[in-house]
Structures are given as structure tokens and as C-alpha cells.
Amino acid sequence: MLILQLLLLVLITQAGKPDCTPQGHRVLPEMEKDGDLIIGGVFSFHTGQDGYTDSFTKIFSFREFKFAHTMMFAIDEINRDTDILPGIKLGFKIYNDCGSTDILRAVMTLVNGLDQSGANCTKPPTVQAIIGHSGSTPTMSFAKIVGRFHIPVISHFATCACLSNRKEYPSFFRTIPSDYYQSRALAQLVRHFGWMWVGALSNKNDYGINGITTFINAANEEGVCIEYSEAFESTSPYHEIIRIVNIIRTSTSKVIMAFMSHREIRILVDELYRQNITGLQWIGSDAWITDDSLADINGYTLLIGSIGFTVRNAQIPGLDLFLQEVNPSQFPKSIFLKDFWEHVFDCSLNPSEIRKACNGSENLRDVQNSFTDLTDLRFSNNIYKAVYAVAHAINNLLSCDQNKSFNSNSSCLKLVEIKPWQVLNSLQSINFTTPGGENVFFDNNGDSPARYELINLQSVNKGKMKVETIGYYDASFPKGQRERDTYIITYNFWCACIEMVQVPVSKCSESCPPGTRKAVQKGKPVCCYDCILCPPGEISNSTDSINCLKCPIAQWSNTRGDACIPKEIEFFSYDEIMGILLALISLFGVFFTVVIMLIFYIYRNTPIVRANNSELSFLLLFSLTLCFLCSLTFIGRPTEWSCMLRHTAFGITFVLCISCVLGKTIVVLMAFRATLPGSNVMKWFGPLQQKLCVLIFALIQVLICAFWLILSPPFPYMNMDHYQEKIILECNLGSAIGFWTVLGYIGLLAVLCFVLAFLARKLPDNFNEAKFITFSMLIFCAVWITFIPAYVSSPGKFIVAVEIFAILVSSFGLLFCIFLPKCYVILLRPEMNTKNNVCVTHQSRSHSQSQVLGPPRLLGHISHFLKTVYIHILCEHIT
């Protein structure tokens, strides 16, 4: 850039002198045509370095040569058009140069306007605009300098986003979209196909570095990860190419974004083909994706299947005939046209050559090559539009209405008054439609609208790449509508000559299925991750989910972790083994109680039944039956009625049982009050009083339950606290005070009964219920004392099982301890079931014991006295 600035100063110094003499050798145009106004053009008809040798081999670029003739065709078409620039002839000066230095020298020649004769240059015939160059780097080198002179530069192929900087390049325009849009479109394309793990390659110049940097930034925004990013030039040493090839070989990504020119891609693909590295999906920039010169390389098959964006194709009517009429006689001084002719017809225009002679009478209609091929005029159309843009800008200046915005003091500009800076200003505001129907305009940065075709390289036929348009991209649309796939993409790169419609996969890690989330691997890009199962209660219902979502409180994750399902509602039911077992035990208790009731009814007139208050015995058996049956209400789905029934039925039936047992115990203890046999103490506690006592005790429990049900009754409750994955449907007590009052009242009666029975345990053995009541109450109290901690600590539905178990054990304890010994005597020892055995035996036993003991102590006398009284009362009761 320092050299360029010095050159600029020299030019400015020379411009201040009345006479100027060009320094060094004069640069002559390759092709030129005189006219009233001159448009300059800079192209490179030769390109490339063949291989890695030091010798520079010129390779014909038919595409660049076609660009130049498209420019000449557009100028010729405008000159023949009476609607635009009538009476004015446009001319051109086209330069063919390679390398930034030669290109800059050619451009400065156009800026100086020096003619071939070296005449006085006080008023140089400066060109009105410069068309070119195809490369971004050479365009940048001269566009900054030309901008100081306010001469428009319109490029058809320079796509570097940096050229949109109006401060650096104030006079630059282009008829091709900026790489800013292309790079972002390519990033969205990669994301569209799910290629989240790609490699990035570019050439080491402004075009490649700026383009690939924009692509990487846009890819990161789309969530795409770059495994590697490398840059090289066609002139890079061989070991640098080998290093990049080794990176490609060892990488895990199968998609490569190549932001480079056709020169670099030729060198790279040749080396990949030499080392047999295949199976890659190429994504190309517009600089090489449609270049037919790639069909000549050995590894062209590696590129089949490549996709990329390029400007839309177009048709230019009349261009085919114009190209077919090209002849060396048109521009006798053109060296390249002579070389081109000899190359196409494989002849020599110089008779001294060894090859066959030709004289220029040959016709291009008779041969087929990429120069005359018009199937792909994407970039030639950009040249066509650039020429028409300059023509319309000049035409607007010459129009009186349009001219007022540039020169308010005069009505119309004359042809000799037009200056390049005026053309520059006019270009900024043009808006016209080409003969082909395409709308042309520039934005504030000199850029054209970003409209692309998505193409696919599908085959090579006769040295030409066959491409198919598979989609469109328009940056002016909303983001969701920019990509419009209108064709099916054909992939045939995995296996030669086999077409496959399956999209290739390029990911650092496989997609995480639903039910998992992504966890980034330490020290690696975000696209490299592990799939972690969602914890219980959380789900991910999409692929590659970042987070797991918690299920609602009433739902839980399924086994796959990809959906929330209603939590399992669990309750103690008849469907499980424990429920069935406890129900059978309960029914067995009912059956056994009914059997004992039948035995007692059959032997109701026997002494052993009558001696133990048969009415209380039957009432006790009935209440025990209810106790066994009430345990069944605890099994099954809790409802509002079952919750109220189970606790109240349990409380009342158990109080009824204990009341009967307590009545039996009081009968025995009331006998202690009788000082002599025949005393009438028992008249105050006869059968009626016993029944009334049982009724009062039961009525108290009924009142407690009634208050409980009225104030805060039990109700069904979904317990979600014990288990996260399921709901325990249970009966909420409503009022804990009511429940513990019911249970406490039962416990109070049981303790009272136990104490009274314990005091009466030493009465005569035969038919004495006090011992059995004591033992049964001991079991009852032990069960319900241990029930409390078991009830509090039992999880979920097992709390119901604890209640049922306590009910059954205490019921069986009362049943077996009180009635089983009597059944044994009734059924197996009938000889003991007599009045004499009850009365006489006990009296004699009591008397003999008093003789054996001798003078007893005080307690012994009291016990002997009580036994005697009890026997007397018992015998009277039997009678």
C-alpha cells in the first residue's frame, strides 16, 4: 500500500505539469474501439500456475475472454439502441493483465487517459468507468486509488465484503452480491442440512480470509461448529498443501466449506485424488462452483455432488452470434486473440510453425468449447448489467430532468462536460430494467441485491461441469423464507456413478435422541457432546435437546424419558397379594366367629355358656364379626364415603368389643364386693345393668365419631410427598384430633379392662374368664401400642396394611383368648361342662388348699375368701 500511495503522489505531481511523459514502457490495451465516451475494462485471460513447479505456465481462461466479449457486445448493443444515448457512440479499452502490479499499471493507464502517441495531456480523455476485475484482491488494490479520482469501478465478480466500505472504496460498485450475504447463506445452508461439524478452507488473500471469517461467524450463530480452518495460496509451497491434506484425512468432519478460487481448489483436489481421499461433501463459493476449468483436473470426480450458491443464470439474446463471429482480423494487434485462435483450432497463424497453418478464415461455429457455450452466463450477465448501468448513468446526465440534481445552474449537460464524478453520482441512483427483464440498482454501499441459486454439481460431460439448480436464496425475504427448495438434490459422491438421495451426515457427536440432553465435552466445541439421560421426572421430547424439562406435579416421565405421563395412582387394593391375603384372613375371622357363635348357640343351656353371661358373649361375638368385616373397608380405592366409614366403623365396633369384655370383667369384680354368699350386691349389676353399661360406653364413641364427621371428616387425598414417581391415594384424617380421640378412647377402655382383669386373674381356674381376658387385653394393648410408631413411619399404602393388621391381630386375640378355651371344654371335654364340676369341685379344691396352706397371711386369707364368694355366686348364676 505504501508503494501505491507513492505512485499516486507521482501521478498527482505529473498531472500538475502542462506536458506529461509516461514513465517506463507503455501499456497497450488488448482490444480497443474508439468512441465519444470510453469505458475501460480489466481482465485476466491467462491464469494459474500448473502444479508446484517454479515455471509459470499460462493457462487460457475462456471465461475471462468471454467476459471481455460480453462487454463489447453490450457496448455494441447500446450503440445500436436509439432509446439510450442516441447519437452517442461508446468505445472501450480492454486490458489483459495478470498479477496485481500489471493490473494496477493497466488501470492507471486508463485513469491517465494517455494515448499511444504520447501527445499533450492537458485535457486527458479519461475513461468514464472501469469494468473489472474478477478477483477481489486486485480490485481492492486499484479501487482505493481510482476512488481518489472519483472514477466509477464496477466489478462483475469481486465479492469481498470489505469492498462495501464506502470510506475506503468510495467509487466502487458491483453487479454481484457481497460475500457478506453469500457467507451467511452458506452457513444457513449447512445448518439446513444438519451439517453441524464442518471444515473450513480458503485462499490466503482478502477474498478468502474475509469470506471464510464471515462464514465462521455466521456458522457459530447457527450452532454449526468448525473443526478446522486453514488457508493457502496457489503459490504456497508443496509441504503446506500436504499439511492441509493431512488435516483433512485425520478429521472427523465429512463436509468442507471451500471459500477459494478455482486455482486453489484445483491444486487441493489433485492432491486429494493422488492420496485417494474420498467421501467428502464439498460446499463451494461462487468463485469455483461453476468453473468449467475444473473438469480438466484428474480429481474432478471428487467434486461431483458439491453444492454452493451462485448468482442466477440468465440469457443474453444475440450473444451467441456475436461470439461466433470473433476473428483475429477484428483486433490484429491482440496477441491473446492470436493465441486463442491457434489453441482452439490447433493450428498456427505463422507459416513457420510446425503445426498446421491457418489464416483466420476458420469459424467458431464449427467447434465446441466453453467460450461459445451459453448455458452458463451467470457472471457474463453481470458484465452485461455493468455496461448498461454506465450507459444509463450517462443517459440520465444528458437528460435535462435528471441533470438538475447534479448541476442546478445549467439546464442540460453537454457531452464534453461530462466528468467521471458525475457518472459516479448518477450510478448511485440508477434503477432500470435490462432487455432481459432484470431489475438493476445499487444500495448505498454500491452493492447489488443478494439473490442466489443453489446449484449441485452432478456430472462432467465433454469437459464441462453439469450443474442443476436445486433451490433459491433471496436475502430480501424474511429469514424463514429465504431458502426455497424447489428441486430434489441428487447426491452421487459416496460411490462413483451411483446416485443416492440420502443426505450425508457430518457431526462431531451423534444426535441425542429424545429422553436425553446434550452435555458439552470439556475442552471441545459445543457440537461435541455426550448424551446424558434425563433424570427421573424430567423429559426431553426433541432431538438434541439442551435441557430436560420437569414434568408437572401430577405427571412423571415415562421409561424413555421423552414424554410426561400421569403418575401411577397407588392404593391398597384387592389386586395385590397382600390385599388378597389380608382380605382372606378377615373373612376367615368372620367365619371362625360365626362358627363359635353357632357352637355357643347350640350349647347355650350348658353350664359353661350360662356361667359366663351368654348374652354378653353373643354380643361380643357379634361385635368381633363387625371388627373383622370393618377391616375390609380399608381395602380398595378410597372414596369420600369409604374414608368416613372405615374409621368410624373401626372406632365403634372396637369400643363395642371392649365394652362387652369390660362388662364381663366388672361382673367378676362386683363379686368382690359381696362379703357373704347370697349377698344382693349383684342385683345392682345384673344383666340389664350390664347391657346398659355396654350401651353407654358405645354411645360415647358414637358421639365422638359424630363430632369428628361433622367438624372435619376424613376425605380422599392424593399424597405426592412420599414418592416422586407415583401418587398414593389415601384417606386423609381430616382432623387428627378426632382420629386420636377415637383411638385414645379405645385405648382407655382397653387399659381399664386390662387392669380389672388383672385384679381378678386369681379367681378359681375353671370357667374363670379373668385370666383369658387379661391375656387378650395384654395382646390388644401390645398391638395398639406398637401400632402408633408403625403407623407414623409406614410409607404410602402400607400404612393401611398396618391398620388392617392391627385390627385383625387384636380381634383374633380377643376371639381366641376368650372363646377358644370354652369351645375346647364344650367340644372336647364335655364331662367338665356340668354344674357339679363348676361348683363342688371348686369348693373342695378351695377348702383343701386352705388346709394345706395352714395359717395363711393376710393376702392369702383375702384371696381364699374371694374365691369362695365367686364360686358361690357362679353356682347361683348357673342355677
Automatic annotation (TrEMBL):
Cleavable signal peptide: 1-15
Residue span(s) of domain G-protein coupled receptors family 3 profile: 578-842
GO cellular component: plasma membrane
Ranges that cross the membrane: 577-603, 615-636, 648-672, 692-711, 737-760, 772-792, 798-820
Matching Pfam families: 7tm_3, ANF_receptor, NCD3G
Intracellular or extracellular location(s): Cell membrane
Predominant location category: membrane
Highest rank taxon of the organism: Eukaryota
Gene Ontology molecular function, alphabetical: G protein-coupled receptor activity
Keyword terms of this UniProt record: Cell membrane, G-protein coupled receptor, Glycoprotein, Membrane, Receptor, Signal, Transducer, Transmembrane, Transmembrane helix
Protein name in UniProt: G-protein coupled receptors family 3 profile domain-containing protein
